[in-house]
Specification:
alpha+beta, transferase, 1 helix, 25% strand, 4-stranded antiparallel sheet, Heat Shock Protein 90, single chain, kinase, globular
């Protein structure tokens, strides 16, 4: 699933998969260069561990951030946050939000 939107002074792009999810202790490591999860497939489909590190570097070079939201057996959502730059000042939080824009709203 792919979705886009705005929140405050930020634009976001979210990508959600239906894979096995990412354990909490591995979520920050997925952005490290050459790191591959312990349960990633074997052989030629393993990849190099560079894709998400490159994404983070490009997004951060534009003043944004990347977040991962995941639970085991529930897939993962990666959200790219980029600052909106319009004519004039844009009010926004100094850091990208930590929320998952695709998550169901919590009941009040």
């Amino acid at each position: 699933m792919l979705a886009t939107g705005r929140h405050g002074g930020w634009a976001w792009l979210a990508v959600r998969d239906r894979g096995p999810g990412i354990a909490a202790e591995h979520q920050e490591r997925v952005f490290d260069r050459f790191w591959r999860g312990p349960d990633v497939g074997s052989g030629r489909d393993r990849g190099t561990g560079l894709g998400l590190a490159i994404v983070r570097q490009v997004v951060e070079s534009h003043g944004g951030g990347v977040r991962v939201h995941s639970e085991p057996d529930a897939g993962a959502t990666f959200v790219l946050w980029l600052p909106l730059r319009a004519a004039g000042a844009v009010e926004r939080t100094p850091k990208p939000p930590a929320l998952d824009p695709l998550a169901a709203p919590t009941p009040t």
